[in-house]
Amino acid sequence: MSLLYEWLDNAAGARQGTMGGGQALIYRDTYLSWHGLQHRVNRRASELKGFGIKAGDWVGLMLGGVPDFVVLALALSKLDAVVVPLDPTLGGRDLNMVFAAAHLRALVTRPNTLTPFAALAGTSPADPTHERPRAVLESRRRVSGTLLTCATFEQKPLRLHVVPEVVLFTLDAGGDPKGVVRERRQLEGIGAAVGATLEIDAQTRVSTAAGLYTSQGFDLGLCAALAQGAGLVLDDELVAARLAKLLSDQGVDVLAATPALFAAMARMPTAKPCRSRRTRCISSGESLTPAVARAFRKRFKVPLLSCYQAVETGPVAIDLEGRNPTTVGLPFAGVEICAADRQGTQMPAGVRGLVWVRAAGVSASFVPPVRLHTRGSEVPIGRGLRDGWLRTGDIGSLDRDGRLTLFGREDDLVKVDGRRVALGEVEGCLEAFASVRSAEVRLEHDEVGGSRVIARVQRDGHCTPKQLIDHCAKHLAPHKVPARVEFSEGG
Hints:
Blueprint lengths: L2 H12 L8 E5 L2 E4 H17 L7 E5 L4 H12 L3 E4 L6 H11 L3 E4 L5 H6 L15 E7 L6 E6 L11 E6 L5 E6 L1 H15 L6 E4 L6 H14 L2 E4 L5 H10 L4 E4 L1 H8 L13 E4 L6 H11 L3 E7 L3 E5 L11 E2 L4 E5 L12 E6 L6 E3 L22 E9 L5 E6 L3 E4 L2 E4 H9 L4 E10 L5 E9 L5 H11 L8 E4 L4
Parallel strand pairs: 1-11, 3-4, 3-5, 10-11, 10-12, 12-13, 13-14, 25-26
Antiparallel strand pairs: 1-2, 5-7, 6-7, 8-9, 9-19, 14-15, 15-16, 17-18, 18-20, 20-21, 22-23, 24-25
Helix pairs in contact: 1-2, 1-3, 1-7, 2-3, 6-7, 8-9, 9-10
């Protein structure tokens, strides 16, 4: 068995003979004990084995923040299969690239996941530019007792020099999907770092507003709960009213969300203050503004804790005091941070440099393996040195106490709704439109914690903002689509 199931087995064993077995998973009106969760996982593992899934197979879970994701991920872990969480909003192009990179043996999807499914099944969509799938469909079966579909494909397992347990996909600097491979040691490191830093134990209730396919949802949600045997509270409706209800009615002790969601919660006139002053509300995925931090503290009577994390590193730093939202605070337990140049030479305190991270949770393997060109002894973004330091691509400085302040990126990767967007990818999509001569894309922030993509276009013919936004919506994930299109003078 892999580590995720081992954590489940340990938590269930620790509650052997106790009344009710403790609450492992809470989803609206559904409460699952650790024994009940393990029973469901064991049954699902037997079913997946009957589908032909075996140890070493890579299986994609294209689901949101629902109990089925947790049960299926743990079932795959029991079979020693590789868990590959995927964004349900992936388009056909990105999903095709994921298949090429990961050699997925199977993919589990929801009923409304139509466009990617059509692509993988070999159905020709109306869009003539659509890429044909690189996977041959073997079978499609309904997962018993659900509306989920498990499609299996004729694939040879991907063989790496490491033993992967989980692969989380993000974007590289060019906007293409990149799989970050996590072995047992990375999962153990992330679980230990989060548990020790946030003081999570078996009585804690953990929740996250991000999908479990993101680093925030997976690391601060699933891993945080399983590693410590804590209760995991899920909700797939990412709206302010639901999150406020989790804090008041479910007694959530640790809630991770984006600044935009916390800002929306702070604007609710009927929101109740947190029951416990020990409640930790963690803001990550984008920069936290002082205005959002002040408004949230005033409404809920607890501070917002600014946090820095990445798929390649796991959680890196957090401001546990919540007094200065312009900094992301001190490192998580077991994490080292330095600001250095491209070769890894450390900068003095207070001087801006490139952020490097060393920790047990830092990944060293990626799919597809890309050769990156560098100058001299420069270390590429997203790669590391032999002694374990990884160049993250972020720019920051450390003060004399070791507190980290971030100042942006080296490349054109930005975050919207906590997910990466490559600005060059959006520009390329706009410039593929027949009436566009050139496009320039930027990220726009507002004081309530939101970020949005804005495009400035020079036309080479007639087109409207709506036409360009509709064009992007057909080819890009929703969070990458420009919120506004402006035309430059004379264009």
